[in-house]
Amino acid sequence: MIDPYETRLSRRELVLRLSSTGLVAGAVGVGALLFHDRRAQAAGLRPIPDWRVPGGGSLPEAAAAHGADPAANLRRAIEAVGGMGRFVKKGEVVVIKPNVGWDRLPEQAANTDPQVVAELVRLCRGAGAKRVVVTDNSCNDPRRCFARSGIAAAASQAGAEIVDGSAAVFVPASVSGYSSGIEVMEAVLLADRVINVPVVKHHSLSRATLGMKNWMGVLGKGRNRLHQSIHRSVAELGAMFRPTLTVMDATRILLANGPQGGSLADVKTVGAVAVGTDALACEVWGAVQMGLQPASLGFITEAAQRGIGRADLALVKDLGSA
Amino acid sequence: MGATRWPRPWHLLFLLPLVGVAVWLGWRAQRVREDPAHILLALRAVAGPTLPAELRAGATRRTPLQSYDKETLYEFIDGAAEAYLANGFERCTATVYAFADGAAELEVAAEAYRFGGTTGARTQMTSERPTDAAAVPGLIDTFADPSSLLAVHNRDFLKLTAMGSGPAAEAALRRVAAAWLAEQP
Amino acid sequence: MRWVQRIRAVYQGFFLLLFLWLLARLAAGDLRDLPFSVFHHADPLSAVGLVLAAGTLPGALAWATLLILLTLLFGRVFCGWICPLGTLQHLASRLFSGRKRRESQLVNRYRRWYALKVYILVALLVGALLGTLQSGWLDPLSLTARGLASGLWAALPGGRLVPGGWLAAGLLLGILVASRFIPRLFCRALCPLGALLGLFARFSLFRIRRRASACTDCGACTFACQGADEPLGSHRVHECHVCLNCLPACPKAALGYAALPALPPAPAQPDFSRRTAIGTAIVTLTVGPLLRASGGGRDAARADLIRPPGALPEGEFLKQCVKCSLCQQACPTGALHPAIAQAGVEGFWSPVLIARRGWCEFACTRCGEVCPTGAIAKLTSARKTGYDGGEPVRIGTAFVDRGRCLPWAMGTPCIVCEEMCPTDPKAIWFVEVEEPGRDGQPVRLQRPMVDPQRCTGCGICENRCPVGAKAAISISSVGESRDPLNRLVLPPPAR
C-alpha cells in the first residue's frame, strides 16, 4: 500500500484545503456581521383606521325609528341618513360589531337583537359588500354567546361570516392611553367599513353601556383593567375607534342588573332603532331611552370634552312610528 | 524521550499574547464602573436647572440661589421674558459668583433657564448670541465673547455675564461653564 | 517536558487564574471596571446558540468569532491552552491518579462513544432553533462559574449560600472526579463547546503531522495524549486539544505541528453516525416543545417568577440566557438566585429574585452590566429609577398580607416596610388609626398600604419585614415592566 505520508501535498489539495478554511472563516465573519446586534424585526403597531364616510350635507347626523318590526325600523332609519349605498360601496369588506358579550337569549336584552343584525347584513350585501363579517370578543364562551343570542343563526342566514372570540386573531395596535398594551382584533383593523351595533343596557359600574363601551369587544387580553377608570377608558375608546355608522339598538333594553342581566323583569320593550354618523349623538339618544340624564354619565361628558361628536339629542331626527 | 532542553530566548515570544492580555487588564482596572454618584446628578437635574457650587466653579463665594418660574420671570428680566415664554420657558435659577483676584473681586452673573424642549433652549441661545462670540474649544454647544458666555445642554440654557473683561474674566467664564456641563447627566 | 509544554502550562495557568480571579472579584463586588464577562463573551457556543435561538448576536459576543478564527487556524487550542475547566480537569487527573494510570495507551485511546458530545451539540442547536437555549447546562464556562461561585465557594466562610448550589457544585466535582478514571473525560465525551470547536477544527490549517517513514507504531505518542485523538494512524483533528504532548514523546521525532500537512487515512469506522445525529434531531424536535410547556408554559405569567430589572420578556429571555450565573454573583445584595421550579424546566438555573434573601437595590444596575448575552439589558441608574423623567423599571408589585402584618393583625406598630421603601414619593403609605390595645389603652397604628402605581417591586420591604419565615408583605411579578400583559392597574395618567 502506498503510504500517503510520503507524498508531498499536491497543489490542488493545498488550494482546496486553504480555500475551504477560508470559506468557513468568511462564512463565520459574514454571519457575525449580519447578526451583530440585529434586533428581531419589531412587529410594529398596526394603525387604527378611521372608517367614517365624509359629510352628508343636509342629511341628518342621526335618525331614530320606532315600530314593532326591528328590521323595518332599521331600514327606515338608514334611509333617513342617506341609505346604505352612501356608506358601503361595491366590493368593500364590512365588519359589523354587535354586542354578543353574554350567554343570554334575545328576550333578556343583554345582546344586540338578532333581527337588527341580520337586516344590517342584508343591507350591506345589498349595497354590494364583498364580505360581511359579524364579530365580537365575548365575555362568556364565544360559541354559546353567538348561538343563544340568535345572532349566529340570523346573521349567517343573511349571508355574513361569523368570527367569534375563539377564532379571532389579535394583533398589537397603536392604542394609546389606558388601553395601551392591549391587542386589537385583526379582522376589524383590516376592514374597509365598520358598523358599531350596540344594545342599550344598564351597567353596574358605568350606569349605562352604549356605543363607546361596545368597543371593548374588539380588544384582547387585559381589557378588564379598564374598569379601574371606566369613564375615561370608554371615552378614549370612543376617540380611537371611529365607525362608519353607529346603530343603537333599543328594541329591548336592560334597565337594571346590567351588563349581563338575566331577569326578564329588568327588560323594557321600547321597539326603537337609531342610526347615525355622529357616535356621541347616538350615545345620548341611547341614554335618554333608559331615562338617564346624558350629562350625568361620566363617559359622555369625557367624550364631549374630547370632541368625539356632539352630545346633542336634537341631532337625532325622530322618525316616529311607521 | 527527548531530553529536557532549556527554552531558547525566542520561545518567550510565545508569551507575548499573555503579556498583552495582562496589560489590557491593567488598563481596565484603572477605570471605575458607572459612578454611583451619577444617579444624584440625574435626580438633581430633574428638579430644575442647576448651577455648580462655588468650589466646583472655582469661585470664592456665590450669592444665594434665586428661582423664577413662568409667572415671576418678569420680575427678573422684565420685558425680555416675552421671548423666553414664547420659547417654552419653564423655570430658572440664578446666582452671582465672585472670583477673588487679589484685593479685587471679579463677579460673574450666572443664570440657567429650563425650557420645554431642547429646540426652545437653542432658539433662545441663538437669538442672544453676540456676533463676535466664538465656540469655546473643549466644551460642546458653548459660545463665548470677552465678557459673556452662552451654553445649551438638553433643555437648559446657561447664560454667564462677567462684570469685567480680560483674560481673568474669560478664564472664570470657562470654569463656571465647564463645571456646569460636568454636572449635567 | 519540552519548552512548548512549559509555555502551554503557563497559558493554562494564566487563564485559569484569570478566570478564578475575575469570578472572585465579581462576587466580592469589586468597583473597578474589570472585564468580568470576557470569557463568556468569547464563547462560540453561546454565540451560535443565540444566533439560532434569538436571531441576534448582541454586542460583545462578536468576540466569539475571534475564537472561531483561532480554531480555524490552529485547531482546538482553546481546549488545550485556555479553557479553565480543561485546566481544572488536567490538574484533577494529575492529583487523583498516578502517572502510570493516566498516561497509558489504554486510558487515552479514542472510544466511539466520545461522539456523544456531537449528538449533545446537535440536540442543543436544534433546541435553539425551536426557541429554547439550553447550552448553559453543559457549556464549560457557565458550568465552572456556576459550580464554583454558586456551589463550592458558597461553602467557604463568608460565602453566600445559594439554594440548589449543591447541584452545580456536584456537577463540577463529578466532572473533576471523572478525570481520575479517564483524564478530561468531560472534554472528550460531553463538552458541546468542544464538539463545536471540533467542527471548525476539521478545517484548521495547523495540525499534527506524522512522518510515516519514521514512525515505528510504538504508541508512545498516545501515552500522554489529552484529547484521545490517536496521533498515530488516523489522527482525529477534531478531537485534538493541541496539547502537543505527543511531540516530545516520540522517540523517532516523527511527529510535528505544522501547517497543512497531508491528511491521515480515515479511521476504520466513522466516528460520527449520521443516523444517530438525525435521530437526536428528531427527538429534540419532539421533546423540545415539552420543555416549554413545563410549569404552565411560557405564556403564563408566573407570580413567583421575578426576573432581574432589565430582563427581556420571558420568551426572549429564555432564548438568550446561558445560565452563567454572573448576574447572581454581581448582585450586591444577593437577591438573584438560580431558578429551580419558578421558571419551569426551560428556565432551570436562570436568575430569579428571591426577596427574602436579597432586594433589588434601587439605583443598582450590576446584573445588566455583567450579563454576557444581553438577556438582561444594560440599564443606567437614571433610567432604572425613573429619575430621567420616565417610568421606573418595575419587576413586580408588593402585596400586604393583612393577616400577618403587625399593625393590621396584631395591633402592634411597625412601619419598617415604609421606612425602607426607596421610591419618591414612597410606594407604601399609611392609614392611621387609634385602637384600644389588649390593656384598653389606645395604640396609634400606622397600617401600610401599597400604591401599585409607585411600587417597583424591589423587594426591600419583604426583605426587611420583621415577620419571620413568610413576610407580611411580599412581591409578586404582576406589574413588571417587561410584560405589558402582566399588569395589575392602569398606568398613571400622562404627566
Please give a structural write-up.
- The complex is a heterotrimer of chains A (322), B (185) and C (495).
- Chain A is of the alpha/beta class and 322 residues long.
- Chain A has 2 domains: 11-41; 62-321, Rossmann fold.
- Chain A is built from 10 helices and 12 strands.
- In chain A, strands 1, 2, 3, 4, 7, 8, 9, 10, 11 and 12 form a 10-stranded mixed β-sheet that branches. A two-stranded antiparallel ribbon of chain A has the order 5-6.
- In chain A, a hairpin with a 3-residue loop joins strand 8 (199-203) and strand 9 (207-209).
- In chain A, helix 4 (114-126) packs parallel to helix 6.
- Chain B has 7 helices and 8 strands, in the order αααββααββαββββα.
- Chain B is elongated, with a radius of gyration of 25 Å.
- By secondary structure, chain C is mainly alpha-helical.
- Helix content of chain C is 39%, strand content 8%.
- Chain C has helices at residues 3-28, 38-41, 44-54, 64-74, 77-82, 84-96, 99-102, 116-130, 140-152, 165-181, 185-189, 192-201, 246-249, 274-293, 314-320, 326-330, 366-370, 381-385, 406-409, 416-420, 460-464; strands at 206-210, 255-259, 336-338, 351-353, 397-400, 428-436, 442-450, 473-476.
- Chain C is elongated and about 105 Å long.
- Chain C starts with a helix and ends in a 19-residue tail after the last strand.
- Chains in contact: A-C, B-C.
- The B-C interface holds B 1-2, 4-8, 11, 14-15, 18, 21, 25, 28-34, 36, 38-39, 42-43, 46, 185 and C 1-4, 6-7, 10-11, 14, 18, 31-35, 248-249, 251, 253, 363, 365, 369, 380-382, 385, 387-389.
Q: How many alpha or pi helices of chain B?
A: 7
User: What's the multimeric state?
Assistant: heterotrimer
Strand content of chain B: 25-35%
Calculate the mean pLDDT score of chain B and round it: 85
What is the distance, rounded to the nearest whole angstrom, between the alpha carbons of the first and last residues of chain C? 73 Å
The secondary-structure element order of chain B is HHHEEHHEEHEEEEH
Number of domains of chain C: 3
Radius of gyration of chain C: 27 Å
Structural class assignment of chain B:
alpha+beta
Termini separation of chain B: 66 Å
Low-confidence stretches of chain B: none
Beta-strand segment tally of chain B:
8
